[in-house]
What we know:
Layout: E1 2-11, E2 14-22, E3 28-32, E4 37-43, E5 46-47, E6 68-69, E7 75-76, E8 80-83, E9 86-89, E10 98-99, E11 111-116, E12 120-129, E13 140-149, E14 153-162, E15 166-167, E16 171-172, E17 175-176, E18 188-191, E19 193-196, E20 210-211, E21 223-224, H1 225-229, H2 234-239, E22 243-248, E23 255-258, E24 263-268, E25 272-276, E26 297-302, E27 315-316, E28 321-330
Antiparallel strand pairs: 1-2, 2-3, 3-4, 4-5, 6-16, 7-10, 8-9, 11-12, 12-13, 13-14, 14-28, 15-27, 17-26, 18-21, 18-23, 19-20, 19-22, 22-25, 23-24, 24-28, 25-26
Amino acid sequence: MKTSFNKYGRKDGKDLCEIVLENDHGMIVKVLNYGATLEKVLLNDENMILSLNSPADYSQERNYLGGTVGRIAGRVRKGQWRHGLETHQLPINDGENHIHGGIGTDTEVWDFKPSCSENSARVDLTLLDPDGHNDYPGNLKIHVKYELDNDNTLHYSINAVSDQLTIFNPVNHVYFTLGEKDNIKDLLLQMNADYYLPVDHSGMPDRGMEKVAGTAFDFRKTKRVGDALEADDPQIKDRDGMDHPFILNGNQPGAVLSSEDHKVTVNTDAPSLIIYTGNGFDHTGKYTADFGQYAGITFEAQIPPAEDSDLGRITLLPNEEFERNVSWKFE
Length: 331
């Protein structure tokens, strides 16, 4: 097992670094302290995830690739959080809604500490998100860990504590490709999810859970991702692909994505995986010009977005510890 890091720049008076984790089988994981970002996953020198051309590109244009997105990943309807008789207003930055924490944690430079043992190579990253940043209450101390083992599994965890009542629902926003160069339509997907959440025109859930049975969203048995993307389904057509929460039924793994040559198995203690198929990539943007529609697929492990301003499920009490765990096993 090996760890190392390279400085590649400066931002906000802090060093920007690329941290390298390598196991005894030659699998390499690259992490940036900018946004606690998963930059590359190299299996036999082939990258399994969607990546920009260089580490320096990530801070030039916000695109969420591999970032630790928070304080809340996803949307909050009208940016409103109702608790008791009070309504707290977050910035509106996605139509009439709030999305991805405003200028969120994926745009911050984190402190980091690499370490290594006989069984794992890891990096711990920490960030203090101050009270009032992006109009979120509470000084929030966040700890993210990436740990690579000799089973070719990358473990990712987020822990956080706030000194005030606040809301928190972060996610790692990595896009998987399994080495596919153009799009992920021919990848095969299986998920342990019997229900999904339909969404409205703004991407917010609006009618509760619906069964996946008989819909394009049924991945209980392995099927081609493109079969869903090409389906004549109003939910698919309205979002130009998948942009939906899948409610996990508790059976592990949560999801298995495979190609002819590779496979990633996703396990998590989160109640849902939000699937987004890169619907908005359209070869624009200075740093994402190489990416077309469906260039990658996410499995965002989190609590699904709420329909209204009752955000009780993602409310943190003062000094209550938040913990989220995800693992990705590559073959």
